Structure to design on (196 residues):
């Protein structure tokens, strides 16, 4: 009949081959991850746009911001393509993240170059944590394409964090408070984008 049947799980493991066991739950998990990750990369491009609108191309660390913004734009482009290919609905909050991201970038840049770098360091710290959690979830090998992209992008985000710290992020005014508030906002944005 062409319908594959699988034995009942024995000792907590499915007797089905991986391809047969991968079902709607795994596709839904991948779609949720893709939705939130694309939203995050979109938000990152807006943060950098806000920073560059204030800092311009002559401020300290502007070349680093331009380079990081280029990598984030590439991440977004690749997630956009995968969303389209898989028919995943993007977050409905994208207009909110556009305004909020630009405002956050501009506000931190207005505080000075170190505050702009503090923003980058805080966000990239949260994204590193977020991507690591996703890679742990994807360790079952069910979506190697998405896992590969996330691993690659996580390395870039870690590099961005290190660049920001080396550029004086921790010298920003009220760094612990600023960093904590940005990280909390980032966690909230992640949770909302997963669901909406």
């Amino acid at each position: 009949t062409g319908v594959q049947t699988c034995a009942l799980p024995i000792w907590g493991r499915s007797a089905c081959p991986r391809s047969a066991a991968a079902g709607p739950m795994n596709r839904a998990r991948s779609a949720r991850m893709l939705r939130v990750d694309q939203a995050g990369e979109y938000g990152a491009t807006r943060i950098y746009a806000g920073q560059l609108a204030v800092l311009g191309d002559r401020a300290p660390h502007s070349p680093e911001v331009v380079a990081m913004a280029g990598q984030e734009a590439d991440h977004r482009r690749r997630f956009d393509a995968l969303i389209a290919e898989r028919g995943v609905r993007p977050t409905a909050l994208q207009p909110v993240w556009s305004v909020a991201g630009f405002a956050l970038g501009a506000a931190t840049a207005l505080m000075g170059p170190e505050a702009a770098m503090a923003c980058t360091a805080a966000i990239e710290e949260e994204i590193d944590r977020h991507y690591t959690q996703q890679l742990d979830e994807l360790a079952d090998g069910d979506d190697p394409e998405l896992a590969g992209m996330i691993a690659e992008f996580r390395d870039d985000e870690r590099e961005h964090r290190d660049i920001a710290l080396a550029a004086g992020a921790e010298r920003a005014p009220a760094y612990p408070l600023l960093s904590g508030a940005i990280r909390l906002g980032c966690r909230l944005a992640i949770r909302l984008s997963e669901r909406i």
Notes: The longest helix spans residues 24-55.
